[in-house]
Write a structure and sequence with these properties.
- The protein is of the alpha/beta class and about 350 residues long.
- It is about 35% helix and about 20% strand.
- The protein has two domains: about 290 residues, Rossmann fold, CATH 3.40.50; about 45 residues, no CATH class.
- The strands form two sheets. A six-stranded mixed beta sheet has the order 4-3-5-6-11-10, sandwiched between helices. Strands 2-1-7-8-9 form a five-stranded parallel beta sheet.
- α2 links the parallel β1 and β2.
- α1 runs parallel beside α11, α2 runs parallel beside α15 and α7 packs across α12.
- The longest helix is centred in the middle third of the chain and has 17 residues.
- The protein is globular.
Length: about 350
């Protein structure tokens, strides 16, 4: 195995002078490693490693969060969701500030336990995230959830948003570092479309700095050789076919839907909702939830940052009025959000 210093030297040798190359990571944990390791400072000046839409909290639509707040204010409802979601700002405030009956969980299984412990309440699991968190939500449905547990799904599909990014000439992506955890579910083959259809070199990488550097090196080598493909440098965890059982359960309980990405807009076929067969578990149906028009945060460019068109430091609110303690936009809330990461490392 190559030493870290050798990989960095090779990366420098693979980047042609006078030509800018942009490689996007599509995972908040990847961005966390890149920023905290000081990796960007070790790269050639004309090689950009740009953060993409890898933070599920950041892209969760404001409408879903406001509906979650409203549900938590009902006397017979307990809202349960992941910790970061409690602090995401909206035009109505955050769940933590404006909610009434809510609890933080770290696993869908905790939602089942809360439902069993509170049979006189309606438990709404505000389930968000990419394929990584969709799979365990499908898992509890397969196990059989209590009658008083309902799902408010705000799940998003990673490959679909990546295709949108590829088609946007303003971004100008030369290569992808595909997300490791998502790849463990969907498989490395899920990214073949980018190398085969769009000619974009793609490397599946893990979360250690050495593995990420290896992924970057592989992308650059493909650009130099002009032999584009999908490479998996995280083969100890990610298989070509992914997790077949997780995929089967997701397909059983969820359907592809046209959904809104906060700060980006509606993207056809980019989200997952419960199938009509399981409407009795769908909080949108059971509680008659309606969509709420998204508001704009004056000065916030979170949507532009998510798309890789700007860095957090370009935002006029960054580090001034927008901080992890007083977030104005969703990108400053989660430890996977680019603004939160850059605040702590720049």
């Amino acid at each position: 195995m190559k030493k870290t210093t050798d990989i960095i030297k090779l990366i420098h040798s693979l980047v042609p002078s006078g030509k800018k190359i942009r490689i996007m990571n599509v995972c908040g944990s990847h961005e966390h490693t890149i920023a905290f390791s000081g990796m960007r400072g070790l790269m050639p000046e004309n090689l950009e490693i740009i953060p993409g839409p890898g933070c599920p909290v950041c892209v969760c639509p404001e409408s879903d969060i406001i509906n979650a707040i409203n549900l938590s204010q009902m006397d017979d409802v307990i809202l349960v969701t992941y910790g970061d979601m409690l602090r995401v700002p909206t035009q109505k405030g955050s769940i933590r500030a404006e909610g009434k009956n809510f609890r933080m969980i770290t696993s869908p299984f905790e939602a089942m336990n809360i439902a069993r412990s509170n049979p006189d309440k309606k438990i709404v699991f505000f389930s968000i995230g990419f394929e990584t968190t969709t799979a365990p939500t499908a898992g509890i449905l397969e196990m059989g959830v209590p009658d008083n547990l309902f799902i408010l799904s705000s799940h998003r599909l990673t490959p679909t948003i990546m295709e949108i990014l590829v088609k946007d000439a303003e971004i100008g992506i030369d290569g992808f570092i595909a997300p490791g955890h998502v790849s463990a579910i969907v498989g490395s083959n899920a990214w073949n479309v980018f190398s085969e259809k769009y000619g974009i070199p793609t490397a599946v990488a893990g979360f250690e700095a050495d593995n990420l550097l290896l992924g970057i090196m592989e992308v650059l080598q493909q650009l130099k050789d002009r032999k584009v493909r999908t490479v998996n440098v995280y083969s100890g965890v990610v298989k070509a076919e992914g997790n077949a059982q997780a995929q089967r359960l997701m397909e059983k309980y969820f359907k592809v839907a046209d959904v809104n990405w906060r700060g980006i807009g509606y993207i056809p076929g980019s989200g997952l909702e419960l199938k009509d067969t399981y409407a009795e578990k769908n909080a949108r149906t059971v509680f008659g939830l309606e969509e709420i028009k998204e508001s704009k945060i004056p000065g916030c460019i979170c949507g532009t940052i998510i798309l890789g068109k700007a860095y957090p430091s370009s935002c006029k609110l960054f580090k001034k009025v927008c901080t992890p303690k007083t977030p104005k936009g969703p990108c400053m809330v989660s430890f996977e959000g680019a603004c939160n990461i850059w605040y702590k490392t720049n």
